[in-house]
Amino acid sequence: MMRAPAEVRNATINTNSGNSQVYDHTTGIPPMPDYNGRVLAYTATAAIVASGVLQGVFQDWLLWAAACALLWPHIAHVISRRTFLHRVARIRQKMLFFDCLIGGTFMGLIGLVAIPSVSVAVMLMFSCLIVGGVRQWLLGSTLMLATLAATVALFGTASSLEVPTITAIVSLLATGTYICVSAFYSHQQARALLLAKTQIQNQREQSIALSHKLSKYLSPQVWQSIFTGERDVRLETQRKKLAVFFSDIIGFTDLSEEMEPEALTELLNHYFNEMSEVALKYGGTIDKFVGDSIMVFFGDPTSRGQREDAFACVSMAIDMRKHMKIMRQKWRSQGIKTPLEIRMGISTGYTTVGNFGAENRMDYTIIGKEVNLASRLESLAEPGEILISYETFSLIKDRIMCRDKGEITVKGFAKPVPIYEVVDFRRDMGPNRSFLEHEHSGFAMYLDSDKISERERKAILLALEDAADRLRLEEDLR
């Protein structure tokens, strides 16, 4: 007649007849399945019928109803688990509706005798609320009342709605036993769900922490595309037009002979960290670090169009060149006297990009003659110089001033390749430029007026005036 609360188990989940069960390993007590819940409810109802018949409250033929009540849970189990009905959606709720119909009929057959009828109704409503919530309770109550009304209309009510004390006690005990047992298992299942939720949360936090650790080995764009499902981790490549960037440090070999390995490693990591921040600011995909060299490309896995990708790449290079001046001043203050400069090369064209390697070890990178050209341009550049290919120049020339550097011969290119030197942004050229820098022995100045606040501007002016006064005083003393 009634069904147990929803079954849940926090270790092994089985789906059979639409029912999921969860076993609480912390208590060792399994949940009460539909079958056991229905057996308990119908046994309680059979006990009420037997007590009523023995005390003459119910007619003798209702003993057959008690026998049917003992058999129905087994029949319902076979119907819902062993027939095609186990594939029916929400079979649990539908079987409970059928129990409500049986319950309403039973209450009508006993003539709506007060305490037994209330006991059966309470068990039904309790089951509906636990299994399906308010909606199940409303629908189940409607079906039960409709069936009850129809049965009472056919057979009428009992001459007396009161029952003897023993029958009343049996009814209350039967109902109380069912509710207490169901509530106990519901409590155990709630604990199991809470434990499962805690375990899932812990696993989620561990997965997030692990993914963040793994992200250090991948470019953020690649890591994001993998973890959002946009990209599959498999051996595949594609042809795309990319802007490719190479840079290295001039003077690093000499510096490595002067410094201890630990100090050199700290300097190099600081350099890579600063340059990586600049690359990510412009949306570059950091491919790799090799020695003191950096390889970055634009246009995959995300792209803003060929022109914008090329412009972002050259803008990054200009920013890196400016940033290197700041870093050089900091290193000089730390006692590193070797003047470190970077040189850069940029090429734009079609490359093969994707996952290369083996199924168990892949590397996301690019190959092609444009990669070789960018590397060659970087090796030809002078200290602090940015050399770009003609393809790159054609995409950025309207916003960035460049100087013609002639042609070079590169392996893989049938004709000589025109190359250009990046001067600066056109907006920063002339008297209105925002960037100024001067370096001499004993003096270094780097000024980017666009990044200076009003408060900092006043402090800088005072410092410059103080420095100018001191220089004038020394000049007068001479």
TrEMBL record:
GO biological process: cAMP biosynthetic process; intracellular signal transduction
GO molecular function, one term: adenylate cyclase activity
Domain Guanylate cyclase stretches: 243-378
Keywords: Membrane, Transmembrane, Transmembrane helix
SMART domains tied to this protein: CYCc
PROSITE patterns in the cross-refs: GUANYLATE_CYCLASE_2 (PS50125)
Highest taxon in the source lineage: Bacteria
Transmembrane parts of this sequence: 39-55, 61-79, 100-132, 138-158, 165-185
Record protein name field: Adenylate cyclase
